[in-house]
Amino acid sequence: MDFLVLFLFYLVLVLIGVVTVCICSKTHYLKGVVRGGAQIISCIIPKCLQRAMPKLLHYLFRTRNHTFIILHLILQGMVYSEYTWEIFGYCRELEFSLCYLLLPYFLLIINLVFFTLSCVSDPGTITKANELLFLQVYEFDEVMFLKNMKCSTCNLRKPARSKHCSVCNRCVHRFDHHCVWVNNCIGAWNARYFLLYLLTLTASAATMAIVSTVFLVQLVVLSDLYLETYIDHLGHFQAVDIFFLIQYLFLTFPRIIFMLGFVMMLSFLLGGYLCFILYLAATNQTTNEWHNGDRAWCHHCRHVARPLSADTQVNRNIHSHGLWSNFGEVFLPATAPYERKKN
User: Fold this and answer.
1) How confident is the model at residue 317 (pLDDT cuts 50, 70, 90)?
2) Coil, helix or strand at residue 318
3) Domain of 83?
4) Is 282 contained in some domain?
5) Active site residues
6) 30, part of any domain
7) Number of folded domains in the chain?
8) Alpha helices, DSSP H only, in the chain?
9) Domain Palmitoyltransferase DHHC, which positions (predicted)?
10) pLDDT in tens, 15-70
11) Residue 9 maps to a domain
């Protein structure tokens, strides 16, 4: 029974992670998947719970709360507990390198540091005191970011690349997105912490998946299980194949197989999202700009008197200054006025 509970808990967390990525990235495809899942769930969940769901979803995703931070820590604690009690002990008996086995713990420490920094650091909140300074950092492209625009909520002039976060109720400099897992906006001043947090989280999941896989493979090799035969349901002798090995390992080490499946799925999900974040950093875009960019340019094209030249269409991202400069801007946010950059 505890195996079933553990599996269901992992499954729910994976589903929550997928839904969170969908909500954060806001792509049409992913939103379609979420809507389809909601329709399926609506056939199963009672009406009384369906009425309560909007309030719950609004609390979870549209207000600042610590639910996902607690969930994150519980998830990490459970995975590392399984790794410590199951994998670590068996691997020590098989004389695995201690440095190899301690690598996930080293990554955990670094990950928790950047996780904390992502949670508590200021993303670049725009106030009356620093409004004029932020107005000089980036050039207005007059397409997505227009001069002399005011935030209707904060009553502040909107610097280029800024956005008002409805969850945090503040305008954020170089706004990327609001992340429920860290209960904070990701902006110019904490984007580097979020990137390193995501990188170490992906690396720790991938490392545990690799260690678990190597342990199971070595176990099969040392026991010569792959050379054995078994009797099928017809009474015939059959050579052991990969499906039999997986079934045997699942029945012998169910907790390890559950954990391995979870961290492998997590590695692919986090790895895909990490590649997306690295792409944005390499091209000096934010998630907000990537999502709204094409829409803003299509709207702009409909209102211009003449067609845009080929050079304008190609170089429409005026904030990109080359690969290394773009990555450098993530770790050392731009502070100098854009007029100086031109000179």
Assistant:
1) confident
2) coil
3) 66-300+319-336
4) yes
5) 179
6) no
7) 1
8) 2-25, 28-42, 47-62, 67-82, 89-93, 98-120, 131-135, 191-222, 242-252, 254-282, 287-303, 310-314, 323-331, 338-342
9) 149-292
10) 555 445 544 544 444 455 556 656 666 666 777 777 787 888 889 999 999 999 99
11) no
